[in-house]
């Protein structure tokens, strides 16, 4: 059976547009290790800020945030443009060097915890917690809890676009009125 040329052309065009649109909207987050992000900050001429997702393997809200928030095309695109993104297991076993100190795993309780995660979360061991660091790896803020895409993007833009330098959070969000 021979397919008329106009139908074949329309089909190919439709297929091309569909595949192109899928590729555009399906930007994936590129997760780095702590060492990879620290190396980029140290060696890049204009380094990005660092975003750290502190999670555990057993955390259901962490998995939901991975699926719903970090896979959102707007979130993924913004984060890729403005941050080096790090996944940090709050119960990870490997030592981490940061600002002249080596942080280690502490066997404590049922699971234990990583000292670096505890330091970043300022002792509040809550998962997920997202951490924002500036280009010189100074703490901007830990943000505990699950965040949906739109509220997360507002938080990320507050730090990524340097709004935090000129406005406090309540003014930025309109909560201060």
Automatic annotation (TrEMBL):
Gene3D superfamilies: Glutaredoxin. It comes from Zobellia barbeyronii. Pfam families: Thioredox_DsbH. SUPFAM superfamilies: Thioredoxin-like. InterPro entries: AGR/TXD, Ssp411-like_TRX, Thioredoxin-like_sf, Thioredoxin_CS. Keywords: Redox-active center, Signal. Residues 26-101 form the Spermatogenesis-associated protein 20-like TRX domain. This is DUF255 domain-containing protein. PANTHER family: ANTERIOR GRADIENT PROTEIN-RELATED (PTHR15337), THIOREDOXIN DOMAIN-CONTAINING PROTEIN (PTHR15337:SF11).
């Amino acid at each position: 059976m021979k397919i008329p040329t106009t139908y074949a052309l329309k089909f190919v065009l439709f297929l091309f547009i569909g595949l192109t649109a899928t590729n555009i909207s399906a930007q994936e987050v590129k997760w780095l290790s702590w060492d990879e992000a620290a190396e980029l900050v140290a060696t890049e001429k204009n380094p990005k800020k660092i975003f750290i997702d502190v999670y555990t393997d057993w955390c259901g809200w962490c998995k939901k945030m991975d699926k719903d928030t970090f896979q959102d095309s707007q979130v993924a695109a913004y984060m890729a443009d403005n941050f080096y993104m790090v996944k940090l297991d709050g119960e990870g076993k490997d030592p981490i060097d940061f600002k002249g100190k080596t942080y280690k795993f502490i066997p404590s309780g049922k699971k234990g915890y990583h000292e670096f995660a505890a330091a970043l979360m300022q002792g509040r061991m809550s998962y997920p917690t997202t951490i924002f660091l500036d280009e010189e790896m100074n703490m901007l803020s830990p943000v505990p809890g699950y965040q949906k895409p739109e509220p997360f993007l507002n938080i990320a833009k507050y730090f990524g676009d340097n709004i935090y330098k000129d406005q406090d959070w309540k003014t930025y969000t309109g909560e201060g009125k």
